[in-house]
Amino acid sequence: MSERQFEYKQCLIIRTDIKMSQGKRCAQIAHASISAYDACGTILRKKWLTEGQKKIVLKATDLRTLYELKSLAEAAGISASLIQDAGLTEIPPGTITALGLGPASNEQIDRLTGDLSLL
User: Fold this and answer.
1) Other CB atoms closer than 10 Å to residue 28's CB: what's the count?
2) Max Cα separation, the chain?
3) Nearest-angstrom CA–CA distance, 5 and 83
4) Does the pLDDT at position 86 exceed 60?
5) How far is Cα 33 from Cα 57, in angstroms, rounded to an integer?
6) Radius of gyration for the alpha carbons in the chain, expressed in angstroms and rounded
7) What number is the average pLDDT over the span 32-54?
8) Any bridge partners for residue 8, and if so which?
9) I need a surface site. Which of 14, 23, 65, 72 has the fewest CB within 10 A?
10) How far is CA 88 from the centre of its chain?
11) SS3 12
């Protein structure tokens, strides 16, 4: 069986400098995925959905990294969505926890996120 090739992906970036349970992290990543998808154009959505919805989860060491990546993504025309927690469970209200990027082409996203580590 040949390896499947993906042209598009989402990168979902979670902060590692705030304490969250695994379940909380997963919820924040899910919010980031849906929000970035909603901000993306129809053509990219369809291409990404059709080929299998590739997602990569990465770590950011601080809030500044998320803001910088969001600015770079927007300048490159990539959908970007910061996630701000409501504060109902584990962390204070208004805490920015994650960033969703894309879907976009692998090359575009890799230029922005290539230095980040996998979660």
Assistant:
1) 24
2) 48
3) 29
4) yes
5) 10
6) 14
7) 95
8) 105
9) 23
10) 22
11) strand
